[in-house]
């Protein structure tokens, strides 16, 4: 997971790339949860979304470390 990614000469930390990927996945998951009505069972949606984002970021970081 330690490293950087180069986008047209702009070096970004690898965790930033993973954070953006987790954000994109979170948007899709939130739309899916909202469409199914799962947010009716959530006590605090903002807290739930933050925890879900952190879980997605952790999963992506573990997957990227496993693939290297």
Automatic annotation (TrEMBL):
The keyword Transmembrane applies. Keywords: Cell membrane, Membrane, Transmembrane, Transmembrane helix. It holds the Pfam family DUF1656. The chain crosses the membrane at residues 7-29, 41-60. It comes from the Bacteria. This is DUF1656 domain-containing protein. It comes from Variovorax guangxiensis. The lineage of its organism: Bacteria, Pseudomonadati, Pseudomonadota, Betaproteobacteria, Burkholderiales.
